[in-house]
Amino acid sequence: MVxxxxxxxxxxxxxxxxxxxxxxxxKAAKVWEIxxxxxxxxxxxxxxFLVNLLKQHGCKRILDVACGTGVxxxxxxxxxxxxxxxxxxxxMLKYALQERWELIEEANWLTVAQDLGHLIGDGFDAVICxxxxxxxxxxxxxxxRDQKLAxxxxxxxxxxGGLLLIDHRNYDNILKTGSTPSKCIYYNVxxxxxxxxxxxxxxxxxxxxxxxxxxxxILDYSISNGNETSEFRLSYYPHKLEIFKRMLEExxxxxxxxxxxxxxxxxxxxxxxxxxxxxxQKAE
Length: 284
What we know:
By secondary structure, the chain is an alpha/beta fold. It is built from 10 helices and 11 strands.
């Protein structure tokens, strides 16, 4: 059981210098697909938003820098895109490799442009970093320098006119309410309900403050898989919408085009979304 009064480091595993792999001990990776489902569990809104957006911009060659167990990469491959899949976690890549074996790389966001230099060429049509993955990167120095470096690396991987799709939970609301929404827009309602009823015991939300400022949002998971129950902790940096937007603008510049969606809808069409999806089109 998790002691409510103690915040422990999730994992000491580091698959590449600079960014800790929170899935290094294999506990979360082993049961992650039970929680998130597979490519068939993606909602129609999610699939249609992602696929249609990429096709509308003529994107063919995609870099998934947070492929995890490969759900999004496989979805895009089956939709006809050419996909290079990368992740910092070798444990997560193990499960991705069980689904597809080609063009999967281990890469660190702080060095991804160098790690994948042999594949970048003139740049990818789009780089995607979805599923609240980017929030796993902690702010070790208090000024988000690592996050800015990672985004700058993503920018180097995008060709002129290409896209970056990057998302994060609505941490503004999580910090305000102290809770994480139980429903997730990425998963089918029926599938997610089955996961909750059959496999999920508990998801507990905690917020860690350092010097009066929110430093981490910690989710304690208890997931059952048959007779086996896995308990693990994942931590996230609580990105605030306006600050994250300014960080993207700082890296991509004023000539880039920016759009923000809430739960795959325009912000004018949704109130208090669970997720924000940033779409940046790099200047020509």
